[in-house]
Structure formats: structure tokens, C-alpha cells
Predict the 3D structure of the following.
Amino acid sequence: MARYVMLIDSGVCMNCKACVVACQQRNHVPYGLSRNWVRETDSASSPCGAAFQPGACMHCDDPSCVRACPTGATWKNRDGAVEIDRSRCIGCGSCIDACPYHARFRHPLTGTADKCDYCRGSTPGQTPACVAVCPTHCRIFGDADDPASDAAKALASRKAVHVIPAGSGARPTLAYLDATTPAELPAGSTGSRLDAMRPLARGVKWTGGLVLAALAGTFVRQLVKSSEKEDEELERERRNAEGGRDKEDKA
Amino acid sequence: MIRRHSRSAIFMHWFNAVCWIFLLFSGFALLAGDMQPVGRWWEECWQGLFGDRGLLVAHLAVGTLWVAVYALYLVVFGRREALPFLREVTSFDVKSDMLWCAKKGLWLVLGPKQTRKLGIDPALPPQGFYNAGQRLVAVLAVLSSAGLAVTGLVMGFCSGASEWAVSESVLQWCIFAHFCCAGLMAIFLPVHIYMAALAPGEGPALRSMFTGFVPESHAEHHNPLWYAALKKNG
């Protein structure tokens, strides 16, 4: 099974944003929204005074968006991509809130979550638009487990750097080559209202289980010794006792 | 024999039972990851049967049918059956009802002899048309049904590409409330099924959910207040 990754040499990015436009065009992303971005950071060491860091969905391992989705509409594919099944997505936005990279948005036409899918939805099997269009070839996409691929060669010869929002615990698969600025992202809110459903689901599971066990126990108890028969025995005893008292009174 | 349930009430009871069991089972199978209350096997079992998309469509279709039939029932029988039912199930006598629930629990778990040994009189407080347990579950069922219907319709028809699509925040609250209502009923439904169908002495009551009639002796023993009211009214 392939393990697809996106690698970015942000040192050669010149912030032309061709990747952003190409992605919008190929994936019909509505105006004003984008599946990818180029982050600008002031940098004295850069000739133009700014460092550029292209980014998109990080296709994380153990992704927080997948954990946040209540309907299983988003999942981590075995080939490394984080996918969305739009037919199961009701657009609750829980995954959008949960992504520490803010890589997701709600598509205004479909009403479902949207993000980078390596252009699989629009042009399956083809090189992603952002990779194909980059004039400085700063992006490399491929199977990290295929030694012949450019991605595997880049990973073997250069250092892979992951940019992680502080405190998020994210495990991105998108890597920057050698170095990138910023090296870390600030912490942001990644919670959703549905976080409370996890302990609630455990509560339902345990309480429901205990109730079923108690009912099963009561069912067996009633099979062995019926409370109704005990009632009848008590009633007979009461009548006998009353009968005995009557006889004593008469005597 | 005394008539206890009308034909329409019997139909709605069994229609409700079938829809609820399907919706509860399929609804839990729609949840994923840590929000799955049963287990991954449950999710895979149902999705294997209906397919990923099919399960959601089936859940939504049966849910919509359930709401539509109930709405029709309320329009036609609202005044004659639904309102008297609501009045009956919401008439609580807290002290007596709590005593009934506690004593009924002891009666089932320990039995009357053991209960008496504990120094507690096992005799249950007299009950009306519905006993305290039935009234408690009925109130929870009515509230949960209303919550499930409203949030279900919002999620089904006011989401995605719908022109009435609500905000993400509203949808998240709807999912949460929908799950709370379903979770509550998942806990109380088995209790109702046991108490109505399997508990000793409930045979005539169960049969009345098919025939509509209970023997006079059963009503006199289980629902003495209702029986007395019937006698009084002739």
C-alpha cells in the first residue's frame, strides 16, 4: 500500500500563489475560499524581508478532524490521505473546529466540509494542481514508500520538518524540507460542542450495559423463583392464619 | 373484559415500537469513533447491511415516516386520545409514585418474602390507568420523541446543500441533543420491554396491546384506581 505525502521546500517559494489559484480552479472552490495558502512571516534573513510557507491539509496521522466527525464522513485512508465522503457529511462543522491548521471550510454550495484531497475528487490519478503549477517546483508529491519516487528520494536526502500548532498534539504528514519559517504555529481553539458526546457515549454504553445486566439477572431470578408465586404463597399463609384465628375465636 | 386500548392506540404503539427500534439501532450505527456507543462491530454490521450512504438514507426515511405518521395521528386523534394520554401520564403523586417504583424494584429483585423480612410491606400503592413506572417512561418518551423529531428534521432537511441550511453551531447542538434523547431512551426502552413483556403477572397487559382488552380481575389488581373510577362511572 502506497503512503502518499506532500513535501514542500518553502525556501524556494516566492509567494506567487499560483498553487492557490490552480487549486481553486481545478477543484471549483468558490471565490474567497481556498484549500491551500501561503503564510507570510517577517524575516530579516530573507532577501525580500519575508519568509513564505505554503500549506494545506496536513493529512495528519490520528487526525483530530476524524476524531471529531460524529458520522464517520471523514477518515484516514490507508494510503495516507485524509478523505471526506460528502454523502455522509451533514456539514455540522465539527471537523472544521477541530483542525488545528484551519485547513477545512464549509463549502457554500454543497454545505459539506471541504479541504485538500490531493485533487482526487476533481482529477483522480493526476498530479495535484498545486504541485503541477508551481514555477519553482517547491512542492513534491508522491509515495514515500516507493524508493523510486521523488518524495522518497527527497525524504532520504533531506531533513523533514513538521510544523505543529502549540499544544495540539497534531502529527502532520505534510513535511517541509530542511527548514521553514515559522517553525511552530500558535495554539488555537480546536474544540467543538460535540466533544461532550464522547463521555456521553461511554456513559450510555456503561449505563445501558448495567441496565441490561440487571434486567437479565431479574429475568433469571423470576424464572427460578417467581415473585408472583411468592405473593400467592403469602396470601395463602395470610388466609390460613386468619382461618386459624377464626377457629380459636369460635373455640 | 374491559377495553383498555383503542385500535388506533394499539396501531401507534406497535408502529412506534418498530420505528424506534430500527431508528435506535441504525442511529447508533451511524456514529463513529469515540462517539460510537456500542462498538465498531455494530457500526460495521449495519453499514455492511445497508452501505455507508444507504444507512443514513434508511435512517432518515424511517425517521421522516415516523414523524409524518405521528403528526397525522395528532391531527386526527389529538383531542380524543393524545391529550387525555398526556393528562394521564403527567398526573404524578411524587411520594406514592416513588414508593411504587422502589417497592416494585424490590418485588422483582428480592421478591415479596425477602422484602417483608427487611421490614418493608411489599404491598404496592394503588395505581390508576398507568402505574408510576409507565408514567415516568411515558413522559421521558414524549419529551425524547419531541427532541428527536425536531433535531432529526433539522439535521435531515436543514443541512448540507439545503436552501434552509442552518449554521454549523445549530447542527452541532442538534446532533448533541439528538444523541442525548436517543441515549436516554436506549436506557429506558429495555426496562419498558422487560416490565411490559417479560415481568411476571404482565401477560394480560401485554395481550391487551394486541386485543385492546384486559380481564376485569387484572384491572382490579393492577390498576385499582382506574377500576374504581370505571365502576363509579358505570
The beta strands of chain B are 2-3, 213-214. The longest strand of chain B covers residues 2-3. Chain B has a mean pLDDT of 90.
